[in-house]
Design goal:
The structure is a single chain. The protein is an alpha/beta fold and 429 residues long. Helix 3 packs across helix 4, helix 3 (109-122) runs parallel beside helix 5 and helix 5 packs antiparallel against helix 6 (184-198). The chain is 32% helix and 21% strand. The structure holds inosinic acid. The site of inosinic acid has 21 residues, from helix 4.
C-alpha cells in the first residue's frame, strides 16, 4: 500500500506538475496536501497545455482520481473556474474524479483583501505573497475560526458564516489598514451558490485514502511550493503559511507514515525564487536573462500565478542536501536540464562562505543565510540540443557528468531527468 510523495526541493516552481503528471500515470490517486491557488502547475500533453492552480496535476490522466486534502485552502471561485477551463479542454471533473476534504478550509474575498492590505502595510519589508489570501486563511484556521469545506454541504449556514466573517474582516480592514470594505451580503450569496455546485465533491478524504491504500492501490501526494517556503523549515518569514514538505503531506492528507514508499524531491537544474528573501546563488545581468528566458515560452521563468519574473541563480547543492534531510528524500527528479545547453561552463554552488568560514549546511537562521556567499565548483557545459534525448546514453558526456555530480553532492540517486516540457521528455535512470 504505497504512498509516494513529490515535494519541491527549492523555492517552488521546480517543475513538480511535469513530474507528478508522469508519476500520476502509474498511480491510482493523486492528492494535493498543502497550499492553495498560490501554486501554479503547468502540464503539457501533446499540444495541450494545462495551467492548474488547485486541481492536482494528475487530473490530465484518465482513470486517475484526485483529492484536495485537509491541508489545502480552497478558493471555490478559482476551483470552479479551473473545472470549467478543463471541461473546455475535454476533461470533465466529476465528483468521481475529484474529492474535496470536508476539513479543508475555504478562502474568501475577505482573506484576499487582508492579504493585500497586510502586504502593502509592510512597505519595503513586504513578503511578496501571491495575494491569493493564503496567509489569512491559514491564520483563521490556526485561530480556530476558519470556514471548512464541509459547510459547502449546507449553503444556508455557509452563507451565514461567510457574511459574519466578512463583517469582522471589514472591521479589521478599515480600522487597522484603512482599506476599503467589501460587500458581505453579495459575497455570502455567491458562496451559497458555490456550495450548491461543490457539495457533491465534499467527503472524508482521509478515510477514502486509507481504503485506497488498504486495497494495495498507489497514492501520489502532490506537493505545491517548495521546501524553502515551508512555514517551519523555510526561509522564515519569507515563506508560505503551510508545510509543503513530506511531513506536511502526512498531516495534510490524514495518513500515517507507515505507508510511505518513495519521497521524490523535484529540483530544477538551476534555482529560482519569487518574492523577497535571501538567495545565495542569485544571478543578475545577462546570466540571469539566459536562465530566465524572455517570457515568450510557457516554460520561461515567469510566475504561472502572478506573471512576475522569477529571480534566478545557479544550482545550489547545499539547498538540495537540506531538502534531503527535511523530507527524507529517497531520490531526486532533475528538471529543465535542456535550459543549460549552450552554457560553456556551469557553476554549481557546493558550499557557503560566511565571513571567511566555509560551511556545507544550509543555515536555519535567515540572518546567517543572508551573509552566505556561494562557493562554486565549475563543470564543463555542452552545446548540443538535448530535447530529443530519451535515455541517458543520448545525453552528451558533460550533461551526464552534471547529473552524476548532483548525485554525488547530494548523496541520493537522480532517478528522473527532464529535457523539455513534454510527457515523453522525461528520462528514467
Ligand atoms: P503566499 O503563499 O501567497 O502567502 O506567498 C508567500 C511566499 O511564497 C511568497 O514569496 C510567494 O512568492 C511564495 N510562493 C507561494 N506559492 C508559490 C509557488 O507556487 N511558487 C513559488 N513561490 C510561491
Amino acid at each position: 500500500m504505497p504512498l509516494d510523495i513529490v515535494v519541491g526541493t527549492q523555492w517552488g516552481d521546480e517543475g513538480k506538475g511535469h513530474i507528478t503528471d508522469l508519476l500520476a500515470s502509474e498511480s491510482d490517486v493523486v492528492a494535493r496536501f498543502s497550499g492553495g491557488d498560490n501554486a501554479g502547475h503547468t502540464v503539457t500533453i501533446g499540444t495541450d497545455i494545462f495551467q492548474l492552480h488547485l486541481i492536482p496535476s494528475g487530473v490530465a490522466n484518465e482513470g486517475v482520481r484526485c483529492v484536495l486534502g485537509n491541508g489545502v485552502v480552497i478558493n471555490p471561485s478559482i476551483l470552479l473556474g479551473e473545472m470549467q477551463s478543463l471541461a473546455k479542454q475535454g476533461i470533465r471533473v466529476t465528483p468521481e474524479r475529484l474529492m474535496i476534504s470536508q476539513n479543508a478550509h475555504l478562502i474568501t474575498p475577505g482573506h484576499i483583501a487582508m492579504d493585500k492590505a497586510h502586504e502593502s502595510a509592510l512597505g519595503p519589508g513586504f513578503i511578496g505573497t501571491t495575494q491569493r489570501g493564503i496567509g489569512p486563511a491559514y491564520t483563521d484556521k490556526a485561530m480556530r475560526r476558519g470556514i471548512r469545506a464541509g459547510l459547502l454541504r449546507d449553503p444556508e449556514s455557509l452563507a451565514e458564516a461567510v457574511a459574519a466573517d466578512i463583517v469582522k474582516k471589514n472591521d479589521q480592514l478599515s480600522s487597522i489598514y484603512g482599506a476599503p470594505e467589501i460587500d458581505a451580503n453579495t459575497i455570502a450569496a455567491k458562496y451559497a451558490g458555490y456550495g450548491k455546485l461543490l457539495a457533491p465533491y465534499v467527503t472524508d478524504t482521509s478515510r477514502y485514502l486509507e481504503k485506497t491504500l488498504d486495497q494495495g492501490l498507489t497514492v501520489l501526494a502532490e506537493g505545491a511550493q517548495g521546501t524553502l517556503l515551508d512555514l517551519d523549515h523555510g526561509t522564515y518569514p519569507f515563506v508560505t503559511s503551510s508545510w509543503p514538505t513530506a511531513g506536511g503531506a502526512l498531516i495534510g492528507l490524514g495518513i500515517g507514515p507507515k505507508s510511505v514508499n518513495r519521497v521524490i524531491g523535484v529540483a530544477k537544474s538551476f534555482t529560482s525564487r519569487v518574492g523577497s528573501g535571501p538567495f545565495p546563488s542569485e544571478l543578475s545581468g545577462d546570466d540571469a536573462v539566459r536562465l530566465r528566458g524572455t517570457g515568450e515560452q510557457p516554460w520561461d521563468e515567469f510566475g504561472t500565478t502572478t506573471g512576475r519574473p522569477r529571480r534566478v541563480g545557479w544550482l545550489d547543492t547545499v539547498i538540495l542536501r537540506y531538502a534531503k534531510r527535511i523530507n527524507g528524500l529517497t531520490e531526486l527528479a532533475l528538471t529543465k536540464l535542456d535550459i543549460l545547453s549552450g552554457i560553456s561552463e556551469i557553476p554549481v554552488c557546493v558550499a557557503y562562505d560566511v565571513d571567511g568560514e566555509k560551511i556545507q549546511h544550509f543555515p536555519s537562521d535567515i540572518e546567517l543565510l543572508s551573509r552566505c556567499r556561494p562557493v562554486y565548483q565549475t563543470l564543463p557545459g555542452w552545446v548540443e540540443d538535448i530535447t530529443t534525448a530519451r535515455g541517458m546514453a543520448d545525453l552528451p558526456e558533460a550533461a551526464q557528468k552534471y547529473i552524476n555530480f548532483v548525485t554525488s553532492e547530494v548523496g541520493i540517486p537522480v532517478s528522473l531527468v527532464s529535457v523539455g516540457p513534454g510527457r515523453d521528455q522525461i528520462i528514467r535512470r
